[in-house]
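Follow-up to my earlier ticket, as requested here are the two runs.
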Amino acid sequence: MKRFKRIYVEITNVCNLSCYFCPTTQREPRFMSPENFHILSEKISPHTDYIYLHVKGEPLLHPELGELLDICQRQSLKVNITTNGTLIQKNADVLLAKPAIRQINFSLHCVNGNDAGVISPNYLEDIFTFIRQAKEQTDIIFSLRLWNMGKGQTVQSKNDEILNKIETEFSLPYKIQEMTIPNRGIKIAQNGYLNQDVEFQWPDLKNEEEGSIGFCYGLRTQLGILVDGTVVPCCLDGEGIISLGNIFQDSLEYILDQPKTQKIIDGFSNRCAEEELCKKCGYRTRFG
């Protein structure tokens, strides 16, 4: 088996939305070129079978997305895309035609994360239309995500509206809320899932420390690569604070063998967070 279950790759740090729960990046807006993406894919393919197009930014904004997916196909990389879903119909033809795509995750909580009127009233129907097309033409797995449980009555009211539409679209014989278990998905269709969970706090050096005791899968089963090539321990280091090296300058083997990288790995093996950012990560607490 290859070392990593997934490697997150940020093909752009640009997004068409401004969700309150997603910190705005302070980095220069960029799109990864197909040339650089090809270099990256060659370097990571010996280490994983699965590439996740997601850190910061909206991957469906990338003007050369189809070419990037073709590169993944040639490298035998199975692609998972996480998107806010607002551009799904604009990209439907490309996505449905690319066999490299394994799964598409739709972050439906963006509906509650933006001011009224920012997202089209046809938002959900556009996503449902794409899913119908995908079920007829492909084996793409889809996941609908609502990661904002417990955010108050206003948010829950909007969630209830979304859940009702999902129940109707997929002809579910039950009420979703009666089946929901946080951090666990429920199957709503062939190759289709719904995941609900509480909102987590992105790690930030300004946050209060969550403590150094704990575990994380960063560098154990996953890692992240930002649009400029910066390698980070996981997909939540969206600013490259824990920079381990640059994939365009060095091999992944070299980066993983560096003392800083090994210290983080050894620390979590002993249930201890070594980096200050890791100590201030709200998501890490989910692992106990």
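Run two:
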Amino acid sequence: MFATISRPRAAVPFCLLACLPGAAFAQWVSFTDETASRLTLATVPANDGEEKDIDLADLDNDGDLDIVVVRKRPFSSPGPRADVLLMNEGGVLVDRTVEFGFDAGPSDARDVLCVDVDGDGWLDVVICTTFEDPIRLYMNRGEDGGGNWLGLADESAARLGSISQTSRKYCAVGAGDVNGDGAVDLYFSNYDGGDDLLYINDGAGHFTDQTQARMGNYANSGFGTSNVIVDLDGDRDNDIIKLTTLFSAPPFGLGVYVLWNDGTGTFNTFPFQEINATSPYMFLLADFSGDGAPDMYVVNDSNDQVFTTTGVTANSNWALSVATPTPAPRTTGFGGNLRAADIDGDGDIDIGVGSIDTDIANCGSSRTFCLLRNDGGSLADPVPASSPQNYNIEPHDFAFLDLNNDGCLDIFMGLCNGYKVFIQNDCRAGCNAADIVAPFGVLDLLDVQAFIGGFPAQDPIADIAEPFGVWDLNDVQAFIAAFSAGCP
């Protein structure tokens, strides 16, 4: 619980804000490394150096989020490794891989997705594999009569039908109902110049390859690393957004592509749409502008791009404006996995950008993890390159979750070497506006100095009132009111 203080408004006159000395760089959001007390490993070493991909899910339906980590030899080399199941036990991530049946053997995994494929209310685990390793499907066994979770069971052989593709080097999996029968179908992106895979669900969690019938040559992929199934145009059927990069795969060149669903789950009836990303590698959809329409963030081999929706014509055109996150010293080179969440609790969607490339061995480079702050739909990195924070390190993948149940989002990272758990110190939401630097939970002179130093420098930490992106009297008045009210 945050400590509070109470003092009259007059205790913080405006002249104090004008006369006290400035402060050094102040953090937008800050985190404490609590890995030692928040993570217990058993099946992998603490300095685990394998490639890692992560998904979050409440697998045991107890109300908190658990973590699945899939692993392989790093970068573009085959090398199956054991996967890891971390169960959230009172805010501690405990390795329960063996106890709960997530140990059917190593997988050459590049992605993982937790989704209920059989409609029983329990999330199952789909493992997207590469280098010809068979796709894995772990079914959730639910609970026994006493309410005890029974764990997972590998039912891949019984549920996953044969695949027609000769090259099966999948790098990403997306889920959604494409044929309108209410069942979750699966789409796998191929990154070896072969066909993607569209797996159709029979409604009970059994899948058949219907790629050619529903996609034709629209399944072609040249280094596909990302996809999403979404009703982009609001016509009540789910479209597919995919990318191809590094080399062409006719009819596709390099770019992000929208494949429009004709209403029956067929995707080559309408012409596809190309989104002119410069050199796309990963992307995600989120409503960054706050208008209810999905926008898109694209990780490029050069500058990243933010595409904002300006309109959609059904089965024809997704109209977008494009911008580059600025300033953003950590988003101008090879990047990796993406996650979107309201990190600071201010009501808009921020974004985390991973630094480790899937294909290029860039561990140990100058590239580090980046948190981009959303202010009114504009994404920027508020942390100067000269003042990196403890989370500016090298994750293969990461996830946002409220691990300690305090209302703030924390970060779990799977690094080039090992794992980290960062607990957020303060959401700075609502009345927390004045409590802007450590020690959090205490309103003191350090908070005043940080605001005074940040305001003339247009530091985001001093931008605490609308309109965001503008440092004006509204920010000053908001700070004085919150501080005077003793409201950290």
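The only thing I checked on run two: Residues 473-484 form the longest helix (12 residues). Let me know what else you need.
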